[in-house]
Structures are given as C-alpha cells and as structure tokens.
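Quarterly update, task 2.4: alpha-D-galactopyranose-bound model.
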Amino acid sequence: MSFKFTTGSYSKNQKPYIMKIRLLIQTVMIIFLSSVLISCSNESGNILTPKPGPEPRINGARIFGVRPGSPFLFTIPATGERPMKYEVLNLPEGLVCDAGTGQISGVINGPGDYLTTIRVTNKSGIDEKQFKISCGENLALTPHMGWNSWYVWENNITDSIMRASADAMVSSGMIDHGYMYINIDDCWAIKPGSKDSGQLGEPRDKNGMVNSNKRFPDMKSLTDYIHSLGLKAGIYTSPGPTTCAGHVGAYQYEEKDIQRFVEWGFDFLKYDWCSYGRVATGDSLPELQKPYIFIHDILKKQNRDIILNLCQYGMGDVWKWGKSVGGQSWRTAGDLGGSFEGIGTALFRDGFDVFTDNDLQKYGGPGGWNDPDYLLIGFLSNWEGQTVPTPLTPDEQYTQVSLWSLQAAPLIFSGDITRLDDFTLSLLTNDEVIEVDQDPLGKPCHRVSKIDDLEIWMKPMEDGSIAAGLFNRGEEETMMTVLWQNLGITGRQKVRDLWRQKDIGNFNKKFSARVASHGVVLIRLWPGNK
Ligand code: GLA
C-alpha cells in the first residue's frame, strides 16, 4: 500500500460532501502517519530525558570517599521544587549538613565506613536514600563528574569564566544531578615568551612558589568561591618544564607546586605528561611511572584530598598500573577533540576500539577509572577562534554519553556550560543514565556481541540488574536484537528504556529495537516482574 498526499486542491465536478470526507480522511492519515513516524524515529535531536518532577529525588553517587583529617565537602544532589530541606541521619562525628543547601562539610578523624540516610523534603513529598561515607585511603569511589575548561576555552580561560561556569553548574541544575568538579585545564600559569601580555610575568615568586598569570589574579578567592557554591575545584600542570600549551610546569618544583595547590584550595589535579618526554630517559615502564609515583607521594602527605588524574594518553598500557601509582583516573588515549572535524571518528575509535582492544573493563573500578576524555557536546572551540556546536550528530551524542556511562568513565563535560541548550542539558542530566555511571559496584561494561557494525555492551549493576547498550556504528538505521544468552541471563526480564525513563515491557529470551545510524538504545534489565 502506498500513500499519496495531495496539496488539497480538488476538481470542480466533485460533490462538496465527498470533498469534505476526502479532506477528513487526509487529515486523519497525516496525523496517523506522523505519529507512526515519531514513534519509530531514531533519537535524532529528540529530547528523551523527562523533566524532573516537583517531588524530591536524590541523585548521583551513593558512596563517597574521604581520608581521615581532610576537609570534607559533598553537596547532596537532589532535584525537586525549592525550598527543600536536607537532613542526614547517622552522620559521622565531625560532619554537619546544612539543611538549606544540602552541603555536608567538616572533618572525620576516625577511619571507617559510615552508613547514613539522606532525607530530602519539600512541599510535594520526601525522598530517602542510603549514602555511605567511606573514610580511609580510597578516594573517587565512583567516577568523577564535573566540567573542564579545555575544549571550549583552551588558552582563553580566565578567573571570571571559571566563576561564571561554577555559577552555571548551579543555575543549570547540573549540581542537582551529581556534577561536582569545576576544573581549570592548561593556561592559568605564566607562559614565557607569550605574545599575550596577560600570560607574561615571573613564573615563580622568590621562594619558588608558582604564580598564576594575570587572568587569575587570586586563585584562593576563586576556589573559595567555587567551594561556597558546594562545588570542588580542579587545576592542571605537567611533570615537565612546560605544559602542552607552553606554560610553566612543575618540573623540579613538584613539592612546592603541590604545597601551592593545597594553599590555593584545589581538590583535583590533572597531571599532563607533555614536555616530560624531554626529561624522561626512554619509555621504559619505570620512566613512564616515575613522575606519577613522585607526585602521588607528595599528594598523600597533604591534609587535603586531591584527586590525581593521569594524563599521558595511554602510554605503557597505563590502565594496568595507573591505580598502583596513585592515580584515581588515567586517560586511555590521545585527545578526543584534537581535531574538531575528527571528533566523530575519535569517538568511535577511542570510545569503542581502544576499549575492546585493551580489555579496559578489567582495569577500571572504585578508586581508579579509565578516562576516555571529556564529553564533547554543546558548544566547543573549533580551534580557529570560534565557539561552535559540536560536530557530533544528536545520535552520536547519545552514543557518547551512553557509552561513557556504561564504561563507568568520568563524566566531565567540556563544552560551554554558560551556554547550555536544552538538548545538551538533557544529555547531561538524565538521572537513570547517570545512575549507570555512578553505580557503586563500579564495574565497567564489556562488549558481548559484535555483528559487523552492530555492537552490544553490558554493565553489571550492584542490584543484580544489567545495563545494556545496543550501538549501531553503521550508516543505516537497523533493527538490533539482544539475546539473553549473550548477557548470561535467562527467563523473563523487565526492560526499561533509560533515556526515556520508561518501562518497555517484559521479555523472554531477547529484546529487539530499531537503532539509528551511529546511535544507541540504552536499556536496563531486571529479572522477573520487578
Ligand atoms: C593535552 C591534554 C589535553 C589538554 C591539553 C592542554 O593535549 O591531553 O586534555 O589538557 O594538553 O594543553
């Protein structure tokens, strides 16, 4: 059967009532066809994430690590109509929770696991969730969530952009979904020989303490500001004499630089190999590990928790030893957005193939995560002086966020957070997708089947359910089927569409869905009729 739409013109010899019936039939057909097309359509540009309701919902991590004696800061991420009241039952001694903001702060001196209950109330209802505070040597018990300046601001980053970005993390509501870190990347330090006077100056003071450049007049006041919003602050340097963009690095000043970062109040350090290649004697494993062991030894002496993010592009199979040298995460490949036009190609190469070629699922877990680089969605720098929309198609954007969540990768957005369109925000704030990433079991997904361009990946979740991604790397929309036998399960399973946050139904043996070209269908399966 084929349908033919006419423009609605009709010949004079038709009877008026026949014409009316024809028009009616045409209208009904148009409505019917457009609804069929919408329900079968792929994810192209559609916002699938439902808006949060007025009732309180506690989101984000369910476990958080801190070292004894370090300042503690964790803001309870919760959506719902304001005002909301935040309470934590069984808080360990030394911590308090601000009832109006949900910021938990203080210091815990006694190591141990503290099981608390978070309760959030507003006029529409109440939500309660168990929250474990683990006081010991392990940090980053779930993957980091935050924002990084590099891919949108590169060497144009300033103090005021950082403050505006922190403000935006709050006003956009991202903080209510678990985003926590506001991280400066390269270009805050002095750049000897720079053509830009804002980056010139004395690299260090007379005591050898590193100086920030004029664009960052007062780092302590910047981190105070970020902390006052309930967020944490990150900084960047290199073990080499200069950073990748030619700014002063930490070489031979490591102890002083960490002391400086502690004084300034930073909580996160990206330590980028860059010019260290000129210092290292060869690329043996001990040489690759040396700067990271060295910096970790300094970090662990501080009375402040600073997450260590290793950035050396995967050299020497860093995933095999990143955690043992003290890293809480390690970049698994080169720069995902090194070439603006190449982001799509890099996404599929680094996101899928680097992961499977190296069995990366074996290495990530609580305390140390594979880091395939930032979420390259929203507005990004095109490296030619303009900030433009990501070159990834909407389906590729769903693919990136879904794959990163399944892989338990850090969710660090690096587009313009001060200019979030609704679609980008919807990708970043789907709590059921974030729950996959932040699951306390911390097990990264692995690929369970590949037929040409069609790949199925699964992630075991702490509650015994399974999150699975049906990824279509091909050029045509295709029907994909996931077989229970490939997931290691049997019997009736309840299947939920995570992007739409909707149960699809109960299925036996398999589940099929149409998947858009370069797109994904992300589901979660529970046994029986749960
Ligand atoms: C390297 C890193 C990037 C970024 C730049 C900054 O290329 O891999 O993530 O930090 O340096 O110069």
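Highlight for this quarter: Residues 281 and 287 are 7 Å apart (CA to CA).
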